[in-house]
Structures are given as structure tokens and as C-alpha cells.
Amino acid sequence: MKKIALAFIAALFLLGTPTVKADEGMWLPMFVKRLNYVDMQKQGLQLTPEEIYSVNNSSLKDAIVRLGGGFCTGEIISDQGLMLTNHHCGFSVIQENSTKENNYLRDGFWAMKNADEIPAGFSVSFLVKMEDVTKDILPLLGVELTEAQRAEKADSIINALKEVAGTDNDYDVQIKSFYNGNEYYMFIYETFGDVRFVGAPPSSIGKYGGDTDNWMWPRHTGDFTLFRVYADADNKPTKEYKEDNKPYTPKHSLPVNIGDRRAGDYSMIFGYPGSTDRYLSSYGVEMAVNIEQPAIVKLRRQVLDIYEAEMAKDEQIYINYADKQASVANYWKYFKGQTAGLKRLKIYDKKKNEENAFEAWVAKDSKRVDEYKNVISNYDQGYQELSKIILKSTYDIEAIYRVEAISLAWRGRGLLAALGSDDDDKKAKAIASAKSAAEKHFKEYSYTIDKQVFAAMMKAYSMDIPADQQPKMFKDLVAKFKGDFTKMADKIYSKSIFTSSERMMDFLEKPKASAIEKDYLYQIAKTIILEDYVQNLGAQKKVINEKLDNASRLYLKGIREMNPSKAYAPDANSTMRVTYGSVKDYFPRDAVYYNYYTTIEGIMEKEDPKNPEFVVPAKLKELYMKKDYGQYANSKGEMIVNFISNNDITGGNSGSPVINGRGELIGTAFDGNWEAMSGDIAFETELQRTISVDIRYTLFIIDKYAGAKHLIDEMKIVSDLSPNTSIETDVVKEEEALDAK
Ligand code: ARG
């Protein structure tokens, strides 16, 4: 009797509140109270929902910032606006400020007082609040509309709503679609344009392990950088750097916990994940694995080989290309791992099974048939059509646009248009802006590298793209040089205005439209990027997207209807999310076990003075020899470097705080792991881990390595044990039992 009653109550409960569990899911902070809170408490959270997200009182969300438009995340860790993020998030700032004399990439940088801090050139945004505006938008998007009309109408409603929301203050307002156009949310931000660079370790700490270790565990990287947010005398944001601005006093800053940790500790990550594709169809997986991703990997590898060979020869080129190399390499390895992961984990088959279940569910009810009958066939047809142009589309960007001189020529369009007008003012403005763009471009340009990249990319394009998809202009050019791409590069590069700072500046003294028009690099940009990619492929994709957008919107609507008791987390879209779980080890493959943390011992094990990726700085070695870890070692005397947890993050989350059950900072997230590289498309509970820098290593480097103790003094340090719910793994329990003996 009792049992039945309990089951009945449980069933009611299930119907009322969708079920969620830790690990998968990047949740919207405003729904934590309703969807996740019970589960979070079970995992070890000790805060109230209001301490996590509140519009009226200060809460955790007030210590989290979006960097720029969402390229990374940062957290505020002092009441003087000190902000922590990753080394790879600060990388371009470090790189841009490096010279051969002051090489911050190589040696690191530490501002010993506020006046030494360097304007960073990007802004940060705090989320003020978010609101569900679905009811203001969705009912106005009638079923009679095509997908394109729907999108257009949604945009116009969004613009009107934004205007209303933005009129009485100077906040930034954003409205974004969720669940593929089934829900809409508004986000209000306060943006600070004065951010300053405070400190970074040398790359031999901040990028230790380089591309070899990137996307992999076990890891030993001190991937952190410090910045500071500045505000005016009233603590209000300014649009840009102002000399007499003051360090910003935040609504909330995170205390830092340097106490011992255990496996199973609660871990929660706030941040700005950029994009995921968790609801991608089997058809989409097939195209990605077979065509798109191998093409990206192949082209990027060719580019990297050229970059790396030249960077090794010349320190100035090394500095100039460090950032370009890092971004090409990061997603070269990402896609390589993703393709392998999608295959190994049989993601295509899993998606197919889900789609089959969906189709069976649809077939059971005639109303469902009316609404959903075209979903799977639209996917099928849409991807068949897209697959015919995806290689060219990918090469247009990854091969053609990758050539720096072509991308500069592409930006010459604005100047060309202005030269054709008789508005002298407009002309002068266009020339001035072309000049400053060119200065910036050539400051970090290597003719030698770019010419080789051009030759390699043109060759790949000519050989790999079906002849009937290559424009006549391109084929004529190849014929003219009889397929000798090196010769073609030599000839074109020695003449073009887009490959030489002197020729460009001479040209800009007295610019004539004809000089741009007859330049081969401009012609390539115009034919392939503008006419082919933007116009032709753009028009074809618009037709294809009628099918695909329709299918993906309705598929998501359908599966949510099919499983009403399951809470589906929306895909990432550069809005603030929270993911929670615990510090956790894993088994990457049969018989192999990975512990949940690494120590400085591992840095020394990997050391290789002959390999630039594994050089250990002398000072760090010295501290290691003396075991001079200060208060940052754990109670066993170990210096922990990185740790893993089962949180759900993606690109954009880089720099996000890892927070314990009491709201204290325990680490900074910076990467994902190799065994779960398919994670942006399908989350693998047993395998997927977030890799973070342990905050104790960060503080150790700031304090003991850099001697920047004044920064530690700004923080609120807590040193008792992290709260824990003792869901320890068997391996750890055994280890502790052994220790006790
Ligand atoms: N994979 C990391 C991410 O995308 C970037 C790590 C940067 N380190 C490197 N060796 N490139 O967030």
C-alpha cells in the first residue's frame, strides 16, 4: 500500500518537475532554482538559489564576466576588480605587447603596481539580468511563414523589444533564440571598456605542454592570466581606457579556497560557453565526419607546417605568429579529435536510433504526423544538398580566406566603393581607415610565410575542389602558370599591393580604383569570397536552410514533447550558463585509469630542454628542488597543478571559475579531454571531463614564482577543507586506506 502511494507521489513529482542530473547540461542560471537546485544540493551545494543568481541582491553571477563578445570567461577575485582568466585567453594581449626586448610571451609579465598595468584592448560584460521573452515572440511567428520569413519577423520583433528595454539606461541588450528557435531570452549587460593587463606567467608555464598536450589529460599547464577592470569615479563603466579611471569595485568577488580537496568535491562552473550542437542529426554527423572535418584538419596542418618552420627560424616571426599559430592549431587538433571521437563512440548510430524512436513516436498519432512528418526527410534532403557544396564552402574559408593577403584584399572592397563616390569626405575617411588597417596588418605580417601559404592553399583548392565548382577566373590563372603554384605565388606576391607595406602605403598616397581591380589577389577575393561564397553559396544555403532550420526546430520541439519529464538543456550560445558536478577521475580506455589531479612532479617528468613545449623555467625548478610551495601545497606536501571534474563546458568557457559548494573559487577551467572530443555534439557521461588549473598552483606562481604577493593580499583566502559529500571513487578510497596504514 505504502509502496503504491509512494510511487504515485513520485509519478506526480516527475510530471511536475522535469528530472535533471549532474554532468550533462549547460543550464540557464535563472532556472537553477526550479530545475537543478535539489540535485545540486544532493551533490554538495551549500548556497541558496538566491546566492547563485539574483537580480536584486549580489550573487555569484556578479563575479562572472564575459570577455569581449564571449571569446572567453573571467571571474572577479578581489574587491579591486582583479580578474582571472586563462593564459590562452590573454594570449593575444600578451603577444601584441611583446617585443624582442620585452618578450612577455617568453618571460611573462607582472605589474608590480597599478600604474604598470597595460590597457588590454578588450571589454568585459557583467550580466545584470535575463528574462524569458518567448511569449512576446513565438505567438507572432505563424505556421504559414517560411523559415526565412520566420527569422526575418523574429528579428524585427527582437529589435523592437531591444529598443524598449534599452531606452532608460545605457545597458547592452541581447535577445537570443534557444532550442533552435523554440524559446527566446533577453539578456541585459553592463559593459566595461577599460580592462588592463596585470600579469601572466611565461608561456613555459602558461602554455606548458603546448600543442602536444592541448586537449589532453593528464595535464600540467598554468593556463592563467590576470587583468583588472576599471571604472570611472562613480564606479560606472567607460567605453574605453581612461587614464584616471579607478579599479572597479564589484558587486561580488569570489573568495579563494586553498584547503585540501577530495575526489567527489562539489564543483560548479559559471561561464559563457560559445556553441554546441547536441541536437545535430545523424545526417549532420555524417557530413561532418566524412567531408567537413577532414578538410579542415588537412588544410590547417599544411598551414601549421609552414608557420612552424618559419617561426623556429626567427624570433620576431615567432612573436608575430604565435597567436595565429595557436588559433589555427587549437582547432586543427579539435577537429582531428572530434572526427575520431564521433567514429569511436559511434555517435552516428546513436543519433540514428534517437531519430528512429522519434519517427515511431510520430507515427502513433495523426496530429503528430501532421506537424512532424517532414522532419527526417527534410534532414535527409537538406544534408544531401549541403554535402554537394560543403567542401567548396569549407575551402573558401579555410584555404582562400586563410591567405592573409587575400583577406586584406577582401577588406579593400570598402575602399574601392568609396573611391567610386564623389563624396571627398567619405573618400578621405576610407583612405585613413585603410591606412590604419594596413599598418596593423603589416606589423605582424611575414611575406615569406604568407607566400608559401598562398601556394599551398591554391594548390589544394585546384586539386580538391570539383572542376565545375572552380570559377573560370581561378582556372585561367592556374592554366596561365601551367599548374606551377610556387611560380604563381612568386609572380603574384612580387607585384601585389596587398603583400608589401611599401607598395600599399605608396598606393594609399594616391589610390586609384584600377590598381585594386587589376590586382590578382583582389580578383581572387572578389571571385571566390564575394561572388562564390557570399553570393552563390549564400543563395544555395538559404534554400537548403529552409529544410534544415525547419527540421531542427521541429525535431527539438518534438523530442521535448515526446519526453515531457526530461529537462533538456539548451545548446550553448554565448550566454551565461552554469554546469555542476564533482571533481572526478576516469577510465579513458580499457584497463587505464586517470587520477583526478596532477602535481609538479609531472611537470618535471615531462621536462625536455630540447623541446620548446616542455622547457621548465629555472626558477620553477628551483622552487621544486626546495619544495618551496608555501601555503599552497596540500596536507601531503604535494603541489597540485591541474585537476578534472565532470562538468559540461565548451569553447568560450575558457577562464571560467570552478566553484565549490560554498561559493569559493577552487580552479580555472581551461580545456576538455581527448577521449570526449565529440562532446560538443554528444556528451559522454563516463568520459567527458573539464580540465582546470588548481587555484593553488595559480597562487603559488603569482606569489612564489613571480613575487607578486601584493596581488594575493587583495584576495580573500580561505584555507579550510573544501566541503564534500564524500562520493569518493573506489580507487581514491583504496588509496586513502593505504595511506592510513
Ligand atoms: N584547447 C583549449 C581551448 O580551446 C586551448 C588551449 C590553449 N593551449 C594550447 N596549447 N594551444 O580552450
What's the short story on this structure?
The protein has 741 residues and is α+β, with helices and mostly antiparallel strands.
Q: Can you put this structure into words, describing what you see?
A:
The protein is globular and about 70 Å long. The chain starts with a helix and ends with a helix. Helix content is 49%, strand content 14%. Helix 15 runs antiparallel to helix 16. It has 27 helices and 22 strands. Strands 1, 2, 3, 4, 5, 6, 7, 8, 9, 10 and 11 form an 11-stranded antiparallel beta sheet that branches. It has a 7-stranded antiparallel beta sheet with strand order 14-13-19-20-21-18-17. It has a two-stranded parallel ribbon with strand order 12-22. By secondary structure, it is of the alpha+beta class. The site of arginine has 13 residues, from helix 9, helix 11 and strand 20.
In the CATH hierarchy, the architecture of the largest domain is: Beta Barrel
The overall pLDDT, averaged over residues, is 94
Q: Remind me, CATH topology of the largest domain?
A: Thrombin, subunit H
According to DSSP, the number of beta strands is: 22
Percentage of residues in strands: 5-15%
Oligomer: single chain
Secondary-structure-derived class: alpha+beta
Write the layout of secondary structure elements.
Blueprint (H helix, E strand, L loop, with lengths): L1 H15 L15 H12 L5 H4 L11 E4 L4 E5 L5 E4 L1 H10 L7 H4 L1 E2 L7 E2 L4 E9 L1 H4 L9 H20 L5 E7 L4 E10 L2 E6 L2 H4 L3 H4 L11 E7 L14 E2 L8 E2 L8 E6 L10 H32 L1 H30 L2 H17 L2 H7 L2 H27 L2 H16 L4 H20 L3 H18 L7 H9 L4 H11 L5 H9 L3 H5 L2 H43 L14 E6 L3 E4 L2 E3 L2 E3 H7 L11 H8 L14 E6 L11 E3 L5 E8 L17 E5 H11 L3 H6 L2 E2 L11 H11 L1
Parallel strand pairs: 12-22
Antiparallel strand pairs: 1-2, 1-6, 2-3, 3-10, 4-9, 5-9, 6-8, 7-8, 9-10, 10-11, 13-14, 13-19, 15-16, 17-18, 18-21, 19-20, 20-21
The structure holds arginine.
